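Standup notes
- DV: blocked on the single-chain target, sequence here:
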Amino acid sequence: MSASAAFADGPARPDPAWAAEDAPSRLHRWTEGYAPRPGLADELVGADGRLRGAWPRFLERLARLDDREVAARFLSAERHIRDAGISYRVYGDGREHPWPLGSLPLVIDSDDWAELSAGIVQRAALMERIVADIYGAGRLVAEGFLPAGVVAGHPEFLRPVHGIAPPGGRWLPIYAADVGRGPDGRWQVLADRTQAPSGLGYALENRMVLARAFPDLFSDLHVERLPAFFQAFRAGLAAACSRSDPRICLLTSGPYSSTYVEQAALARYLGFLLVEGDDLVVRDGLLHVRTIAGLKRTDAVWRRIDADYLDPMELRADSRLGVPGILQVLRRGGAVVGNMPGSGVLESSALGPYLPAIARRLTGEELRLTGPRTWWCGEPDNLAHVLDNLDHLTLRPAATPVRGPERDAMLAGPALDAARARAVEALRERPFDWVAQETAPLSTMPAWQDGRLVARPFVMRVFAAATPEGWRVLPSAFCRVAEHAGDDPSEMRAGIRSADVWVLSDTPVDTPTLVHASAPRIRRIAGHLPSRAADNMFWFGRYLERAEAVTRLVQAHLGVFCEAGAAVAPGEEGASTARRIRALLKDWGCVSAADLPPAAMAQEALSGKTAYGSGLAHVLEARRIAASLRERLPTESWRALAELRDTLIYSEAWAPTEAQLFGKAERALGHLAALAGLSHENMGHAPGWRFADMGRRIERAINTCRFAIDFCGTAASGEDLGVMLSLADSQIAYGARYLVGVSRDAVCDMAVLDPYNPRSVAYQVQAIVAHLDALPALAADGLPEPHRRQALALAAMLQTAEAAGIDGEALERCELELEGLADRIACRYFPNGPDALRPEKLTGLA
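- DV (later): unblocked, structure below
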């Protein structure tokens, strides 16, 4: 149960039983009955039964808020998560799940954190030296400190990487370790994360959400801030590059990655370019990103895909996520990649038993942070010990653990009788694939449940970044907490929540930001837009405009067909108009049939779950595309998209009236207007915004042409013309300009030719021409490119035409020209299809 749910059904007025409590009484009630598991370390209660560490400071300050206020703070955090669209995906499940942020942070005092940080820094530096030796001189294996099977038998040992010196000198720009407390209360490492550590973005999101919910506590308790770490991490990547002003990309596998939301958040926060494999290309031994202005050199890539997918030419040939030839770029020192491919070999569980001796060999120091006692079964003596003590040990894969039910069964604890024979067989057949560990249940921390604190298992992922000044530890962490006492929070899934981690200082802390200490050279450039992002922005605008066109058509249908609650008679003037509206809804795939009852037709056109052309279908498609644009769209756009979706979704058990459906359409139009306003006012008017606006305007112009063909023909009735003005949202403007009734030529001029009407076709084409003029040109010869030439010709035709000469044939030609213009824009800027202009042929390799 979430923390806010404990109060969701509470009384409307304060309950005197708890409203009159003072802070000590409230704190006693919250902690009464808190029971850590015997023999396990707990963050809240020490062995003497007293509150330990920083928890007394935190809880005493929290207890100054009564239960109603605490509930309101928890609810505000959940609301912000929903409005901001913070989500994650479970491995193997394509659905997005709201981010399950726990209500209470894990609080740690500064002395405890300093001790943990020192161990993390030592371990990060040690891992850097180990991986450099594995892919370099190989002295650790030659001198017997590390069995060759632990290295060569690991699937993340990439032989093509052997001998490559990492550009910039760093194998691990970022290191992470999953930690918990051992039975003695000391921190211990449960797993090293060196492949492509996730969770850093979620730690950032957790902090932003909880600091917004509890700003007074955050300030009063002197919680350590995060921006300085991210600034140092960014500086570390930049310092490794050969150019003084490098271009840094964050490489993602795409919006269906389980951690795409955090990747987008990090790209936005750090100012990195979020790219997929298809956005990058190797030319002349250097790495470039495909943009609408051509190939632009990329100096560094922060990799968030598994290493074996990185280069299909030398690693996995079936990979569609990586960049062909990138390993050759690394050999030539042409780009920095963090973490370097092959660094995942350090995640082997079999490495643990050998780390203390390796630390003494390489650093002359004892290892500060160790883990549970481990035996690699590849050694005969270890295998014999494991077989003799299998009932008291936990068996784990030596490589990165598998996911799903097999992983759950293997990590459940000692081998059960039913699985014993299978485990023994696996050990005897391939012993080097397995390690065994002493069974050590996870330590616990307090979680909020039903208005009380309960002890729950947790795992904390701590991050260290390689910076120009050395290793730096994030003064927070990515913490996962089980909702139930017996669950394993080793990865995010159902029943696991996340928690912010607050490191409490005894004195006021600095409040650094990502602002540069010295003023940079002033520039007024919009940055480079990857072709894939331009494509997505273009279609994001088109789908939103399609949703608006369908919604206006539904409004017109309800207004014409259902006057005063009754359908028009077949012989009345509106009957033919209604038939055309219904036919258009059917042609656009909004409804399954053109003879549905009025309310059923409106409901299906607005909210149909199976109709590909319904308003809801277009909104869901826009939201799917927006998931690929998280780092580019205003944060408020997610709230508006969610509200728009919620407005259109309906329960099949509900049968709304025509008036209710009309109101639903009005609310949907309001949300669409809000999205348009956010796009115009909250996005920088850079190429990304231009493509979104072009998509909207091309779609609006095409739809208006179609409306004019059906409702503004030479034989249009008064009802037809009224619908045309409604669909073009021009009733008020028409009434202010013309004091007499509707005229076909006047309506046609306003909806199609008027350059001052923001809903007319001519206005859309003028805006498209302006956008194209502002976008990069293919060549520097001054001649208009084919897509610009077509747009200029269409604009000239509309500027010189007269309403009386605009008939159905002319409107159909205009509609076809607009469709052709959209295709030419796609061929010029979007690298899709056999006839597309490939970005590598474009100019501008800087």
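- Follow-up: The domain at 374-438 is CATH 3.30.1490.270 (Dna Ligase; domain 1).
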